[in-house]
Structure prediction request, 345 residues.
Amino acid sequence: MSSPRLTAALDSGSLVLPEGRIAVFAPAMGADLSALSREPVQIISRFAPDAAYWQGLGYDVRQAPEGDYAAAVVMIPRAKDAAKGLLAEAAAHATLLIVDGQKTDGIDSILKSLKAIATPDAVQSKAHGKIFWLASPDLADWAARPRTVDGDFITRPGVFSADGPDKGSQALVAALPTLTGHVIDLGAGWGFLSRAILSQPGVTTLDLVEADLTALDCARENVTDPRAQFYWADATRFEPRALADTVVTNPPFHVSRAGDPGLGRAFIDAAADMLEPGNRRHIRVQGHPRGETPSRPALIRPNLPQRLQETPCPFPSQARPPSLPVQPMAWASLLRGISSSRARM
Prediction:
C-alpha cells in the first residue's frame, strides 16, 4: 500500500536524511518513494514480484544489503518476528533507522518493543499507521534465526506457515497420485510438498518455483535431492524450460490481510499453461478463496479454463482422514487437465 508518511515527515522538515546511500527494505509494489531521490536509493527486496516492479522503474534492486548506508527505511511486514529480523539487518548496516508501517501490520507493537531498547527521535502518525526514526541501535538479538519444524524441516521468520505444514498441504500430500516425469511445484514455499513429490522414484525432474527468496533458501536446505531445480520467480509468470507432465500447487488466495481470489485463479491458469500439450496430465490444487463458498463440500470451483475438468475431492466430507481435518479455509480439490495448446487461458 502506498504510504504518505515518509513524504510528510520529509516535507515537514522533521526528518532530514543524511548524505549518502539509502537502503529501502521490503517496499511493496506501489509504495510511495517519491520523496526520495532515486540515485542514492537501493531497494532490498526478496519477493520476486516486488523486486521486478522496482527494477522496472529503474531502481537498483538487491536481495541483501551490501556495505553501509547513511540511512535505512524499513517498511515492516505483518509477521512480527520477520519485522524484527528486517530491523536488525537494517540497523547493522545503516547509521539512521527509519521505520514505517500500518497499524494492521503491527507498527504499534514494534514501536513498543523498540522503545524498550532505544528512544526514537520522533514518532508521527498518519494514514492509519506510524513512522519513527532514530540512530540505529544494537538489534542483534532481533536477528532472524532458522527454526526446525515437523521433524527436520528448516523455516525462517516471515515465510508462509513458518510453524509447520498447513493442513491443506498435508491433505494435498496425502492425495498425491503416482507421479512420473517432469513435475513443477508452483509456489513451493520451504519445500514440504516437494520432498513428498521426490519420494516417488518415477519423478525425473522437479522444478521448485517460489517468489519468496527466504522460503526458497529454506527449500534448498530441506530438499537436497539432485532431481530438484530451484527458481526464484513470480509463479504466475514463470515459464519453465520444458513443459511439465504434472503441476502441483497450493495456491494463495490472499495478499497480506486482504482476500484475493484472483491470485489463486492466476496460479491455476499459470499451472495449466505449463502442461505438456496434447497429453492428459494432472494439476493438484489446494485452496479456498476467502469469502467464497464451494458449491459442494470439499470442492473448490474457481473460474477454470474449459480444458480443465473437475473431479471429486479425494477427501469427501463424510470420509476425511481424522489426522487431517479440513478447515473452512483449507479445501482440497482435484483437477484433471487436458493441455492442447500454449495459448494463455
